[in-house]
Write a structure and sequence with these properties.
CATH topology of the domain at 2-198 and 268-284: Serine Threonine Protein Phosphatase 5, Tetratricopeptide repeat
Largest sheet: 2 strands, antiparallel
Number of helices: 18
Radius of gyration: 23 Å
Shape: globular
Strand order of the largest sheet: 1-5
Strand content: 5-15%
Distance between the termini: 39 Å
CATH class of the domain at 2-198 and 268-284: Mainly Alpha
Order of helices and strands: HHHHEHHHEEHHHEHEHHEEEEEEEHHHHH
């Protein structure tokens, strides 16, 4: 996807159709939507522009990652250096003017605007009709992903299905069911049209498997476990778990057999990073995630005690220490930098420390850090973010089967994950996790989700669904969870101030208790 992103940087101006002043004037130096998107080749560049937003600082490179994980039980603050807007989310005091929340709102609606532009112009583009239809389906997948994220972050949100070309083209908040109707329609088109695989420079672009996976997740969020199961089963045989767990979080093993969809990044030797929206001919294509969590860098976030003590170890009565603990977390004494350096507590930034099995210790995240091959902490990373991976599909299938009363099949899926070549944990049932009842199997599912996917995006959405369905109970975050407020984030104050139609559809401008 890296070649794609470089060309994407040239497209930002094409999509900025919302002008604020002197609407009757057109800058002759810029192309417009009226003069562009006339061919399949131009349409394809439009899709590249959608990806440029997805991988920007507004979304996957930084703020999307933060918003998910700050709402997850897997993270704690690495110290007082955590910026105030992020500490707000982590501590449950998120306000409508929170800049992180505002960034993901802006990022996703920019992505939607660009997707709508491609979808609207697609039918009239000249050239290969099959490629044209594929490009439009790809834009619909990306729009569906954006709305899936928005509806799970904010609940009812404005629904735009065409580009906004006027200053008064605002929409009101739309009911969640109507948002999902568009999501499912878009994913159906993507599932039927997109290719099964991508090769070469197209790696990282959406596939039919990515559409199928997201469709399964979307059905689960709507409570339709039977249909979700039917969709997720389509992924069986198409993807396989990697032998090595860490292959899912390293740069050299991107686009592997377990990866269903990932957003591509590329590090730079000059450590450049673009703090904007990803556009521009020289915009670096890296992610700042490495710096945020790296032990010898900012270390803004660390593994929570809840997360660390979830792993099976002999100290807490298990027959074997789960290897994923040591793959996921750096402990003092671990080697890094290709084995040439040894990590100490003194080397780790911030004041945050942890307690594991009753013992105080200073530890840090290993997942998605460059430290395995470098001794540079303050370095934007080139590790692709795996948005969807097959292990999550197996966890979701286990949940579907258990919900539908098929406990034996649910346990089978869990044991497939534990059979990864470099994990090989004892099969369920175990002494700690019996599986004789539906409730016991679900406890094993919750456990396996945390130790397999801890620190990854989207676990917060699953846990919130479990709480809503009465399958799990708070505490869920580091703060006291308020079910009358905390299932969603506040609508950004900027949107409330700008959009006079926001509450015109019968849904309040702001979510309850914000």
């Amino acid at each position: 996807m890296r070649k794609i992103y470089i060309s994407a940087c040239l497209l930002g101006a094409f999509f900025l159709t919302n002008c604020h002043d002197e609407l009757d004037k057109v800058n002759p130096n810029y192309l417009t939507t009226e003069s562009y998107f006339k061919t399949v080749e131009e349409l394809d560049k439009g899709v590249v522009g959608i990806y440029s937003v997805a991988h920007s600082n507004l979304l996957v490179a930084r703020e999307w990652f933060f918003t998910h994980v700050l709402r997850s039980p897997d993270f704690a603050t690495g110290g007082a250096q955590l910026e105030a807007p992020r500490a707000q989310i982590l501590n449950g005091g998120t306000s409508p003017d929170n800049s992180v929340v505002g960034s993901i709102w802006t990022g996703f609606y920019t992505l939607i605007h660009r997707a709508n532009t491609v979808i609207l112009n697609g039918p009239n583009a000249s050239g290969d009709a099959a490629k044209r239809d594929l490009i439009v389906a790809e834009a619909k997948f990306l729009r569906a992903w954006a709305y899936y994220e928005l509806v799970n972050f904010f609940g009812p949100v404005p629904l735009y299905t065409e580009p906004v070309n006027t200053v008064d083209g605002f929409k009101p908040r739309t009911a969640v069911a109507d948002i999902y109707s568009l999501i499912m329609a878009d994913l159906k088109v993507a599932q039927e049209t997109l290719p099964a695989t991508r090769d070469g420079a197209e790696q990282g672009r959406a596939t039919s498997g990515a559409a199928t996976f997201l469709m399964g997740k979307a059905y689960m969020q709507q409570g339709d476990y039977a249909t979700a199961k039917a969709e997720l089963e389509k992924l069986l045989g198409r993807y396989t778990l990697t032998d090595n767990y860490l292959d899912n979080f390293m740069e050299e093993t991107e686009y592997n057999s377990e990866s269903i969809w990932e957003i591509g990044f590329q590090g730079r030797s000059d450590n450049g990073y673009n703090w904007g929206n990803g556009d521009g001919p020289t915009a670096p294509q890296a992610s700042v995630r490495n710096q945020e969590i790296n032990p010898i860098s900012w270390r803004n976030l660390i593994p929570s005690n809840d997360f660390l003590n979830e792993f099976e170890t002999p100290e807490n009565g298990a027959a074997k220490r789960d290897p994923r603990l040591d793959y996921t977390v750096y402990f003092p004494g671990d080697t890094f930098n290709n084995g040439n350096s040894v990590l100490t507590e003194a080397m780790q930034g911030g004041a945050g420390s942890s307690i594991i099995n009753g013992t105080p210790i200073k530890v840090s995240w290993q997942k998605y850090t460059n430290l395995y091959k470098s001794d540079l902490g303050y370095q934007p990373g080139g590790i692709n973010t795996r948005i969807f991976r097959f292990a999550e599909a197996l966890l979701l299938l286990a949940e579907c089967e258990n919900h539908l009363g098929n406990q034996e099949k649910a346990v089978e899926y869990l044991n497939m994950i534990r059979d990864r070549a470099d994990v090989m944990m004892p099969h369920y049932p175990t002494a700690q996790y019996p599986t004789g009842t539906k409730e016991q199997v679900f406890a094993a599912i919750m456990h396996e989700s945390q130790v397999e996917r801890g620190g990854e995006e989207g676990r917060d959405i699953d846990i919130l669904r479990w709480i809503k369905e009465g399958k799990a109970s708070p505490p869920y975050t580091t703060y006291t969870f308020n079910p009358a407020r905390d299932f969603v984030l506040p609508i950004p104050q900027d949107e409330i101030s700008r959009n006079p139609q926001l509450g015109a559809g019968g849904i309040s401008q702001q979510n309850p208790n914000y």
